[in-house]
Amino acid sequence: MKRALIIIQGLLMMVLAVFIVSFLYTLITYLFMYVTGLSVLSSDIEYCLMVMAIMISCILLYVWYKKYMSHRRGELIDLKEVFSIKNVLLYLMLGIGCQLFISGVLSLLRPLFERVFSYYDETMTLIFDADIIIVAAYVIVFAPLFEEFLMRGILYNRLRYGISFPLANFIQALAFGIYHLDIVQGIYAFAIGLILGYLYEKTRTLLAPIFLHMVINGLGFLIQLLALGKYLTIGVAIIVGGILLFGSLYMYGKNNKYIIKK
Q1: Which residue, among 199, 165, 205, 198, has the nearest Cα to 77 in the 3D structure?
Q2: How would you classify residue 163: left for phi > 0, otherwise alpha for psi between -120 and 50, otherwise beta?
Q3: pTM, whole model, 2 decimals?
Q4: pLDDT score of 228
Q5: 39-45: long-range contacts, CB 8 A cutoff, minimum separation 24
Q6: Burial of residue 41 (number of CB atoms within 10 Å: 0-12, 13-18, 19+)
Q7: Number of H-type helices and E-type strands within the chain
Q8: Nearest CA to 151 among 140, 160, 164?
Q9: What is the DSSP letter of 73?
Q10: pLDDT tens for residues 20-52?
Q11: Domain ranges across the chain
């Protein structure tokens, strides 16, 4: 019963955080339209307002996380070790491996699920339907910040007060997948969410999954922007990506039992 209550509390906290950003976006949009007198907003303006709402939400979630969630076990984190040259290289390998492996698998599955992928393509088009600088800021910086505070900082931390790591990690990754409201995005977001949760559990600091999340999104942004996917064969992407992905995970787990000052 206690575990069920903790799960419900964590999910309700996540929903509340999502509601906050939605409310802020709506409020900012109405205020902007009232002040400017505009009745129709361009995609660039809508994107800017959305980024503004995300920025404010990140500040609120940071305060929430810092005050109530960041000291779950009262440990002192050794950031020099978390971001040692060796670990940073492993994060980069992990991010590149994720993107290559995911791109290869998606290309392999696309012919089998054309209707599902058509909706996914529309979603990607909407994400990139604005000024490239605004899109880059949102995709590479603010989306990872918001999602890490939301999923790993708020939801996962609440779950870990009374739930084992495997179950808590599975639930937060599943919520992360559902959060994207798209089958294709949801599936690979679930897989990436498992890795981000694992990294957070290992390091006990959100800075590590935030950094990896930014690397993954940044590489995805470049692949989408420069259409690099057409230069990668499915086999090469899956094999090379798989080697980098699972190899870096193995090396990271082997070299870092827990990165905590004693």
Answers
A1: 205
A2: beta
A3: 0.90
A4: 63
A5: 43/129, 43/130, 44/130, 44/131, 44/134
A6: middle
A7: 12, 2
A8: 160
A9: S
A10: 889 999 999 999 988 888 888 887 888 888 889
A11: 2-261
